[in-house]
Amino acid sequence: MYSSIQNLHDDLKAKKVSSKEVIQNYITKIEESDSKLNCFITKTFDQALKQAEVVDQKISKGEELGLLEGAPFSIKDMFCTKGVRTTAGSRMLENFIPPYSSTVNKRLDAAGAIMLGKVNQDEFAMGSSNETSYFGPSFNPWDVSKVPGGSSGASAASVAARMSLCSMGTDTGGSIRQPAHFCGTVGFKPTYGRVSRYGVVAFASSLDQAGPLSLRVEDAFRVVQSISGKDMMDNTSSDKAVPDWVSEAKSFNGSLKGKRVGFIKEYAETDVDPEIKEAFEKSLKVLKDAGAEVKEVSIPLIKHGVSVYYLVATSEAASNLSRYDGVRYGFRAEVEDAAKGMSLDDFYAKTRSQGFGEEVKRRILLGNFALSSGYYDAYYNKSCQVRRMIKSEYETAFKDVDFILSPVSATQAFGVNERVQDPLKMFLNDFFTVSVNLAGLPGITVPVMKASNGLPCGVQLIANQYDESHLLQGALTLENEFKFYEEVPSV
Amino acid sequence: MSNSNWDVVIGLEIHAQLQTKTKVFAGDKSEFSSLPNQNLSPITLGMPGALPVVNKTAIDYSIKIGLALGCDIREKSVYARKHYFYPDLPKGYQISQFDKPLCENGTIEFSVEGEKKKVFIERAHMEEDAGKSMHKGGYSLIDYNRAGVPLLEIVSGPDMTTPKEAAEYARTIRTILRYLDVCDGNLEEGSMRCDCNVSIKPKGQKELGTKVEIKNVNSFRFVEKSLEYEINRQIALKEAGEEIFQETRLYDQAKNKTVGMRSKEEAQDYRYFPDPDLLPVVLPDGYVEKIKESLPELPLARGKRFQDEYEIPEYDASVLTQEKEMADYFENTVKASGNPKASSNWIMGEFLKILNEEKKEISEVKVSPKNLGSLIKMIDSKKISGKMGKAVFAEMWKSGEEAEKIVSEKGMSQITDPDQVLAIVKKVVDSSPGQVEQYKGGKNKLFGFFVGQVMKESKGQANPELVNKFLKELLDT
Fold this sequence. Notes:
The complex is a heterodimer.
Chain A: H1 5-13, H2 19-37, E1 40-43, H3 45-60, E2 72-76, H4 103-110, E3 114-119, H5 153-160, E4 166-171, H6 177-183, E5 186-189, E6 209-214, H7 217-227, H8 245-251, E7 260-264, H9 265-268, H10 274-289, E8 293-297, H11 305-320, H12 344-355, H13 358-371, H14 377-400, E9 403-407, H15 423-428, H16 434-438, E10 443-450, E11 456-463, H17 468-482
Parallel strand pairs in A: 2-3, 2-4, 7-8, 7-9
Antiparallel strand pairs in A: 1-3, 4-6, 5-6, 5-10, 9-11, 10-11
Chain B: E1 6-17, H1 56-68, E2 72-73, E3 76-77, E4 79-83, E5 93-97, E6 103-112, E7 115-128, E8 132-136, E9 139-143, E10 150-156, H2 163-180, E11 192-202, E12 212-217, H3 220-239, E13 247-252, E14 257-263, E15 273-274, E16 281-282, H4 287-294, H5 299-310, H6 314-320, H7 324-337, H8 340-357, H9 369-380, H10 386-399, H11 403-409, H12 418-430, H13 433-440, H14 446-457, H15 464-475
Parallel strand pairs in B: 12-13
Antiparallel strand pairs in B: 1-10, 1-11, 2-6, 3-16, 4-5, 4-15, 6-7, 7-10, 8-9, 11-12, 13-14
Helix pairs in contact in B: 2-3, 5-6, 7-8, 7-9, 9-10, 12-14, 12-15, 14-15
């Protein structure tokens, strides 16, 4: 098993191992461990082995390798993959096989990545624990009585358990960064607009952003470098030039002299688990020791972040999920009485009642309420206003600092079934992550330490829009110190 | 029941399908003549993760229409989602525009029975069409070829007061759309659709009455007829002391009546909000001006020019400019004939008469403007008589031949040699002594008989002026 793509490439080029052997090893690991973790919804081993053969041919011919050549990936089931079932963790898409691939998958293919399969998630990415999946929960590889986090829970779990080297996740309010923290991996959400959303099942269009989970910081940037850049199929994708982060990582000398790291006053005043605080303080010291100046910044409206997030996200979700009506594809309720048939309203009601799970229905109801006439101004419109203000508060903060350090979550991974009955508590879990999506900022989770209960603890770095290079420097500094990738769960 | 106690208020919502090659938010072909459900992309089918990208040509066409309707064009317009469930609407919402439409605040001018009328255009916004549902037995079939075809919805102010005005307004919009060559304006085939909003109120009252929307109106005649029916229905209700409900009613053309479809209680809450998948359309400086420069001369301006330049009456000018093809035909005929008035008369007369009888388009007509011009020239130079001209024209219509050729082949040219004409006149007078006797006895009506006989003898070719002159000389002396 490898912990970085660079190491893998070194071994492949030195012919210490073939790509096929590497892939076979990962397949064996999945077959050993996944019965305990429930990560893979659909496995694509045959295709993966075929791709590995192509990589081996390339190596034998001495051809240049792509940035992600031969790297084994698990892919969150939000990404449409041509000819491969894509469920979004929902009964609604239980048997949906898309006739197209997401732009992310096309670019991963072009860079040589190898997909081992599609992995579990909260249904339509709505959840923070992977427990809302129609395919059952995934479990945390450090302690299978705990959740892996969500919604990209199985992405984090599969990487932490060494069932894949990297994974693609999506992050709408923390869905990459929080499971990375729970499972002890790197989780990187780029700036909104960096990565095309085309072919990624939509949850909340103005917040959704795809990104990788990996063991190493450089890998995460390597993936984002491979998949970023303008896509004509996504109007909201950015045409900003994509930096060569792989080279930037190589040439980083470990010094943060002249850099300013901020911490958010309002977060510092929030109660968190003592070991979460410890991870944060250790990290701050590491950054300071590397030469960074530490500054306090204030984002006063951040306290409304969760409320604003749950209004904006549910409004967009209610709209985005209108297309699942049983007419053209996906789940369709059966007609109970063929002689009577079914009215159109019944058809919709039954299809959507049976096809969606409880959490998804709760959010559709909430979103439709926020958009309905008479409430629009008070809820949706007001949320958008506060969102713009949070964004501008961050902009002000980034005049004083180059990046911000914060916790990812108030706790480590919680127990399976512990919070699923308490949606509000589950929502509040997202306090440290949602404002980053509201402001469209890049954020990255870096694992720092194991808590006394044996569960990982990470921290989050946040930078200004399109300033991922600062995140890279901060994250590499932490990684060099903590080297969490050396820790392997025993599952 | 009487109209005189009531004011009628009518406003129209016209949907114009824009003739772009591809759909408004997807790259699939914008044609639905092909087999059902051909060439559909994941975007048109509303599949998971598929995203819309706006078609620039659709924006340009919409701006053209907006400018032709005198609208302000918004520098920054916003697409919004309009939500409702129906099987032919793939995403569960229609991409439209809500509070920031591309075009707004325009006016158009037209005349109704000689009276000038101005109508305010509140807005014209872009949106996507839905698919087509067909219900057969217990099944519903859906064709999504039409889903995503670009539409511009043109919303008038509540400025019309009679069904005739409403129909004329719709005709004027159609004329403009066709001049711009962005929509073929075919109501029957649905490439242009009219929804009519109508309410009544006691004469002189300021506050508007409850409005009813009429859908399924697929000709200009039905715009008029459905509104007439609906106004009478509303007046009858009011005069019977009953209330009018805000509702949508379908027009049944076979029965010439409107039928309730859905009432306001069942009305949808569309939950509009800005589409997060599409950035606002921001037009660069000078963009609108550039499109403005490319606009063709529009019907109203062209009609005014016809009156000035060709000295033809307003009515003729307005008929001749109703279709761009017609106006072009007229101008080319004038070029060839050098006689605007006669060109207008010919086109407004024989030409339109046969065209309408045969239900043909101008593009199908075999008579070229150049040939019609030559025909008019032959009449003007007295080579043939007007009456012969009609016969030659009929021949031209059938064969597409040049006038000269027909005239010479059929020996139809006019006999203008006085000696020849006099000889024929003499022959007729000499062979009808009885009638000459009666004429001289005071039976003046018989003059026509002699003219007829001369024409018969000359196979209609004798110059009528000479015939008259010689007959008078011979008979009245």
